Amino acid sequence: MKHHNPAFEAINPNIGSSFTSLKFQTNENIKSHFWHYHPEIELILVKGGSGKRQIGSSITYFKDGDLVLIGSNLPHCGLTNENTNNEHEIVIQFKPNFLGDKIWEVQEMAKIAAMLEKSKSGMVFGDEIKKAIGSKISQMHELQSVNKLLKFFEILHDLSVSEDYRILNAGKYYLQTHVEDNERINRIFNYVKDHFKEQITLEEIAELANMKVPSFCRYFKKITNKTFTQFVNEYRITHSLKLLAEKPMSITEVCFESGFNNFSYFNKTFKEYIKKSPSQYRKEFNFLIV
């Protein structure tokens, strides 16, 4: 099977605008559901729906929509696919210097500049600010010319003063600055994305990276701040969260459908990551199995 490097995505601003604002209905944007990167900073609002959030080495589950800010050249997957069941998705893309190199040095822009620096590791915003900003993003998308730009800066300001956010990739995320790492690590990420339901050995993944197993383990930990086993388990647990919340499957079925071949190990790993058992997590969604 051929394994693809992350695709470089070329982005052009909307006609008559210095940045891009795109609106996709339901699962219309599923073509972006692969590893890709671009120099533009990206603000994404997913209205409703649930799914995997895969940004850098962070793999998490979102429900009832999402609001994320992704920094320049940070590899990520699109947030929506045919299973997300979202209402719509608005994607705003802009280059860091879209209004010139000096604008972020202006004192009034200090908080926005600091936020954009944090976005290099990926930021996800909480429900409170997501609800407050969602309507403004929808309004901005319909505006034109200077009114659109002013509304955009209002949105950036509101986000920059909010404390309702979480950084997705702890510490320095090296994939932003080393192209050779970008290509190698994303070849690995793509393989996990396509094969997480199967057994993945360290030997085969090290061979994919053209490295010996011990060297690969040290390399992967340095790049992602987690072991390869932790990374794969996070991917599998994230998949299980969606199944537990949305599918009428037994917990045993969820275990094997998520790539775990041992039920007790699945339970143990789930509790380590989620701090509760799979059955407790499912009860939170009031999901009744017939």
TrEMBL record:
Pfam families: HTH_18 (PF12833). InterPro entries: Homeodomain-like_sf, HTH_AraC, HTH_AraC-typ_CS, RmlC-like_jellyroll, RmlC_Cupin_sf, Tscrpt_reg_AraC-type_HTH. SUPFAM superfamilies: Homeodomain-like (SSF46689), RmlC-like cupins (SSF51182). Residues 186-284 form the HTH araC/xylS-type domain. Gene3D superfamilies: Homeodomain-like, Jelly Rolls. The keyword Transcription regulation applies. It comes from the Bacteria. Keywords: DNA-binding, Transcription, Transcription regulation. PROSITE patterns: HTH_ARAC_FAMILY_1, HTH_ARAC_FAMILY_2. PANTHER family: ARAC-FAMILY TRANSCRIPTIONAL REGULATOR (PTHR43280), TRANSCRIPTIONAL REGULATOR MTLR (PTHR43280:SF27). This is AraC family transcriptional regulator.
